[in-house]
Design goal:
Blueprint: E1 3-8, H1 17-31, E2 35-41, E3 49-52, E4 55-60, H2 69-93, E5 97-101, H3 105-117, E6 121-125, H4 128-131, H5 136-139, H6 141-153, E7 156-159, H7 162-172, E8 178-179, E9 205-210, H8 219-227, E10 233-238, H9 244-253, E11 260-264, H10 268-277, E12 280-283, H11 292-300, E13 304-307, E14 323-325, H12 330-342, H13 344-357, H14 363-384
Parallel strand pairs: 1-2, 1-5, 2-4, 5-6, 6-7, 7-8, 9-10, 9-12, 10-11, 12-13, 13-14
Antiparallel strand pairs: 3-4
């Protein structure tokens, strides 16, 4: 058994794909007997130390230098104290491996600890290099250099898809790397419930999408596709984010305000309800590192229409367990959705195949992969010691 520090860019009480991934991994590693802690970035909320699912979580400050004089002065004042906090966390756990999940300020401090303490480093990327809404890795030379440094010194690097690894290889100098995908609970013990504003009239067909309402998620592309379809086709877009006002205005401008529904952020029970009641679930992202939503469609029995921009090639087989389409081709996206809605036989075949495909994406499988990596990187270090 090993002592593992999961060094996460974000964690509970915040929600998202990375937070979900790390929470499941931490829980299962702990259940298998490993001594696990989650070290995550304090966003100024001063949450201190908490216990989530029986796992200790430390919220650590992670300031970084910036370009303005004021920011540089603030960094000079705050970085020494932050570094001491990270070192105290290290001394408490004395981890056998540092596992950075989604590289950000957490990765900078994790890499510094690796260099100072000579502990194996594993870096797992979840598409942050291209899917970050603020485009940090496109405009910050510090972030680019820090990631390049981490990839060069890490004993192992994983990506949630081949698409993610290819980006690390092309832009950040990664050599090698392996895919460790996302997972999903095969069964969910929650009672499902429909989200608010759910269209319920007879004869209505419902297209569902959900996630962070940001430009790269492509919900505007989905609205444009639905606008080309008949008045019996409604769309539910769950979630919240900076793009929501623009999406609501676009729906009005397209003349579909009466059949475009924005229920806001969905609870787990509402996600289950929306998926199980959907006539088709669409992931219209301009870029998608993996797409846990696709796995949720598979588990919940909704026919899937999946973006071709990203990691879909790793797990969705076009025409078998989903339809893969370029969402920026409005005609193609409209046609794919219409095929599912008008061909019950196709929809059923997609759902039946997906119910088999989803079995290969359990959290146990994800943790099996990580444990194998830990064994590879920790044992040589122990032998040297």
């Amino acid at each position: 058994m090993q002592r593992v520090a999961l060094v996460a860019s974000s964690f509970h009480p915040h929600t998202g794909g990375v937070e979900e991934h790390v929470r499941h991994v931490a829980r299962l590693l702990s259940a298998r007997g490993h001594d696990v802690e989650v070290w995550t970035v304090d966003r100024g909320e001063h949450l201190g130390t908490a216990v989530v699912d029986g796992v200790t979580v430390r919220y650590l400050p992670a300031p970084l230098p910036a370009r303005t004089l004021r920011a540089l002065v603030r960094a000079a004042v705050t970085i020494p104290g932050a570094w001491l906090a990270w070192q105290r966390a290290f001394r408490r756990l004395r981890p056998d491996v540092l596992h950075v999940q989604c590289f950000g300020p957490n990765g900078v401090y994790g890499t510094a600890l690796k260099s100072r303490r000579r502990v194996p480093l594993v870096v797992s990327s979840h598409g942050e290099t291209f899917a970050d809404a603020r485009g940090i890795f496109d405009r910050s030379a510090l972030s680019q250099a820090a990631l390049r440094r981490a990839l060069s010194v890490a004993e192992a690097v994983t990506g949630c898809s081949t698409f993610v690894l290819d980006d690390l290889r092309t832009r950040f100098g990664l050599v090698g790397g392996q895919v460790v995908p996302n997972g999903i609970d095969a069964e969910d013990d929650l009672v499902s419930e429909l989200p608010p504003l759910w269209p319920s009239a007879d004869g209505i067909r419902v297209v569902v999408a959900y996630g962070r309402m940001e430009h790269n998620k492509g919900f505007d592309l989905l609205l444009r596709a639905v606008a080309r379809m008949g008045p019996d086709v409604h769309v539910v877009v769950g979630g919240d984010g900076t793009a929501r006002p623009e999406l609501e205005a676009l729906a009005a401008g397209l003349g579909i305000a009466d059949r475009a529904h924005f229920p806001g952020r969905l609870s787990r029970a509402q996600v289950l309800g929306a998926v199980s009641a959907a006539d088709v679930l669409v992931v219209p992202s301009r870029v998608e590192a993996f797409g846990i939503v696709a796995l949720e469609a598979w588990r919940g029995g909704a026919p899937l229409v999946m973006t071709s921009h990203g990691g879909a090639a790793d797990f969705v087989t076009d025409g078998h367990d989903g339809l893969v389409v370029d969402p920026e081709d409005t005609a193609a996206l409209t046609a794919a959705i219409d095929r599912v809605l008008t061909d019950p036989g196709l929809a059923q075949r997609l759902v039946e195949a997906a119910s088999v495909s989803v079995r290969g994406f359990t959290w146990d499988r994800v943790v099996d992969d990580y444990e194998a990596i830990y064994d590879q990187v920790v044992r040589p270090t122990r032998d040297v010691r």
